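Write out the bound-state structure for guanosine-5'-monophosphate.
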Amino acid sequence: MNHRKLFVFSAPSGSGKTTIVKHLLNETNLPLSFSISATSRAPREEEVDGKDYHFLSVEDFKMRIEVGAFLEYEEVYANNFYGTLKSEVERIWNEGKAVLFDIDVVGGLNIMQQFPEETLGVFVQPPSKEELENRLRGRGTESEEKIEMRLGKADEELARSSEFDAIITNDNLKIAKEEAYQLVKKFLEL
Ligand code: 5GP
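---
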């Protein structure tokens, strides 16, 4: 079994991809490790630095861009940078595990282009635009302005779903989790 593999889970914010990714990480028989992204956005209440993200200042983030520390990075929302550190992927591969990414659509496609053979790209689709909006509001973690920003970006992201290797529609979470599990298992040849 070759573990130098990558799994990209991308979706519009609010599709439930983080829940699916967490489920995969809890499946102890899958040799996966989460790629902890760096971000310049502020931590949410329950988020832990070095676990959910490496929380950096905008200056620190920009400095790391200059020294070429990122495999990919993006200004996902104004002044909110997000990126994958090269060191993160190396760390996980050195542990003999495959890398699991929870990143936005452009970042996901970027990784797929850099590692076409090694990556399985999965797009998590919300059942509808209305449902996406309900979920974003129901989460209650973002201001109205930020919700609008995320919904605006969702249209562009939904239009790119066909560029991924697989699409999971997150209508029923239990089924979506099982589909994700089977896709990962197959790609790892387990
Ligand atoms: P959130 O602020 O909700 O945690 O994330 C906002 C968006 O940024 C999500 O779509 C998330 O997947 C994406 N994101 C998180 N980490 C990265 C990363 O390392 N690179 C890119 N391109 N996007 C990321």
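---
Residues 13, 37, 41, 72, 74, 76, 82-84, 102-104, 107 surround guanosine-5'-monophosphate (CB under 6 Å).
Strands lie at 6-10, 32-34, 38-39, 54-55, 70-77, 80-85, 98-102, 119-125, 166-169.
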